[in-house]
Amino acid sequence: VLSHNLCTVLNVPHDPVALEEHFRDDDEGPVSNQGYMPYLNKFILEKVQGNFDKVEFNRMCWTLCAKKNLSKSPLLISDEDAFKVWVIFNFLSEDKYPLIIVPEEIEYLLKKLTEAMGAGWQQEQFDHYKISLNTSREGLSVWELIDLIGSGQFSKGMDRQTVSMAINEVFNELILDVLKQGYMLKKGHKRKNWTERWFVLKPNIISYYVSEDLKDKKGDIILDGNCCVEALPDKDGKKCLFLIKCLDKSFEISASDKKKKQEWIQAIQTTVNLLRAGSPPPHKEARQKRKELRQKLLAEQEELERQMKELQTANENKQKELETVRKQLEAAAARAAEEEKKRLQTQVELQDRFSLELEREKMVRQKMEEQVAQKSSELEQYLQRVRELEEMYKQLQEALEDEKQARQDEETVRKLQARLLEEESAKRAELEKWHLQQQQTIQMTEAEKQELENQRMIKERALQVAMQQLEQLELERKEALEQYEEVKKKLETAANNTKSWKDKVAHHEGLIRLIEPGSKNPHLITNWGPAAFTEAELEQRQKSWKGKKATSE
Questions:
Q1: CA-CA distance, 109 to 174, in Å (whole number)?
Q2: Quick one: which of 54, 255, 260 has its CA closest to 171?
Q3: What is the pLDDT of residue 135?
Q4: Is the pTM higher than 0.85?
Q5: How confident is the model over 233-262, as a mean pLDDT?
């Protein structure tokens, strides 16, 4: 019956043959929990696809265990609320068997319930409870958690209905993934009428029902990363409007007030952002972070315990080493005491022996002092002789120094004389060189003087010739000037004659010249007006006059 019911709830096909085959050889009595688990894992749980109603599955499991384990004492919560607390426990408990809920998760759950009831959180009260809990165990089992919530220890002053509503709200959020729910008006797509619906927002869908009992479902709004939500202005008498845009359809919704409108817009936008980022719902992500933090703290605590154990082991080893050293020191102290005793005995013997040797030494010392006194007198005489020899040695040293200094002075004088002789011979050679140079210079001066005299004579003769040529040129210049004056006078006379003759000819030809059509070339201007001939004609006439004049001359 259990296997058949599990297969029905989990949507897995039931195989009675496999069940009979698995337990065929087990005829000794009832099947134990350990005996049933292999069959459950192999033939039922491994075939689960995830397309089953988790609430119904939890309710079946609750039916199997509640009657045996639920407390018989009266509680402030109903069996249905106890079931919801049981499901919440399974969600928040640690992933190890037997299942327990740690104090951090208990605090998280109680805070959520307190906020849902609208009461203030009593941190000091929970701290006292946490201290008493930590002294006895690591956490609570599910039945102890139900007793804690049902006892009303953290919900004093709240009635059963308020506590039940708080449990239901937390159950919807943590188990059913309900992020927000409430009544709003929805505009129809066909008839365009406005109808009140109960909306339930989940991580990837918004479902709307006729009422909050969730029995009559009217439709779904599938959410994905492409959806968006935006506020709309008031229209058609409806206020607090907003629009949900999806790929295939858009939905116009009206909230009861502006606060509800803003809360719904923010909740839907947050859900869409989580879908875009591929993040889990906030409560699951927060649970994962709390779990990771606990694991990190546990690892740190285990590491600290390991280090403490290592330190304790090292301390014990050090204690053992110290005990060994102490024993060694005691043995060494005993040996040292024995050696000290032997040393004292040896010291007494040595003192006696030293006393005898000291007496003998005194006698030897007296003899030595007498010998020393005698030797001292001899030494004094010897030292006097040594001082006399030292004085003689000093005198000999001074004589040697004087002789050495005299030799050095003599050597210095000799070197000075040699240097003076060398300088004198160098100066004599230089004087002889200068004398030869002077004689050579005198000879060269005589030759140059004779040559200059010859050149002077040549230049005087050339000068006389040049003077004669200059006088001749002066005479020729005077003759040329006289000829120039004569030619100049002839030219002036000829010019005057030519001018008077040109005037006569011009006057004569100007009177008898016929008037002809003017040339296109520019005309000359005379004292009497425009000329009767052109410039080219004038040049031609001048050439003919010059030719005639040359012929006449």
A1: 10
A2: 54
A3: 60
A4: no
A5: 89
Counting beta carbons within 10 angstroms of the beta carbon of residue 467, is it exposed (0 to 12), middle (13 to 18) or buried (19 or more)?
Answer: exposed
pLDDT band at 114 (very low <50, low <70, confident <90, very high): confident
Q: What Å distances lie between residue 443 and 336, 436, 440, CA to CA?
A: 124, 11, 5
Three-class DSSP category at 69: helix
Rounded to an integer, what distance in angstroms lies between the CA atom of residue 54 and that of residue 59?
Answer: 8
Residue from 202, 209, 329 nearest 267 by CA: 202
The ranges assigned to domains in the chain are 53-175, 180-279
Q: What is the pLDDT of residue 262?
A: 93
Q: Are 78 and 161 in contact (CB under 8 A)?
A: no
Q: Which two tokens stand for residue 117?
A: 């009831």
Q: What's the length of the chain?
A: 553
Question: What is the C-alpha to C-alpha distance for residues 56 and 52, in angstroms, rounded to an integer?
Answer: 8
Q: What is the 3-state secondary structure (H, E, C) of 509-543?
A: HHHHCCCCCCCCCCEEEECCEEEEEEHHHHHHHHH
Measure the CA–CA gap between 368 and 361, rounded to whole angstroms. Answer: 10
Highest mean pLDDT among 6-20, 34-48, 248-262: 248-262
What residues contact 535, with CB distance under 8 A and at least 6 apart? 521, 522, 524
Q: How confident is the model at residue 524 (pLDDT cuts 50, 70, 90)?
A: low
180-279 fold: PH-domain like (2.30.29)
- Quote the tokens at residue 178: 């309900």
End-to-end CA distance of the chain: 176
DSSP-based helix, strand, coil % in the chain, nearest 5: 70, 10, 20
- State the pLDDT confidence band at 511, using cuts at 50, 70 and 90: very low
Taking only the tens place, the pLDDT of each residue in 425-439 is 888 888 888 888 888
DSSP string, 208-226: EESSTT--SEEEEEE--TT
- The DSSP string of 298-330 is HHHHHHHHHHHHHHHHHHHHHHHHHHHHHHHHH
Write the pLDDT tens digit of every residue in 60-85.
Answer: 888 888 888 887 777 878 888 888 88
Q: How far apart are CA 103 and CA 106, in angstroms?
A: 5
Is the N-terminal amide bond of 38 cis, ω within 30° of 0? Answer: no
Look-up of token digits 């337990």: 23
Sign of the torsion angle spanned by Cα atoms 8, 10, 15, 19 = negative
> Of 77, 59, 69, 85, nearest to 6 (Cα)?
59
Taking alpha carbons only, the member of 59, 54, 57, 114 closest to residue 83 is: 59
Tokens of 352: 């006696």
Nearest to 55 by CA among 29, 26, 88, 33: 88
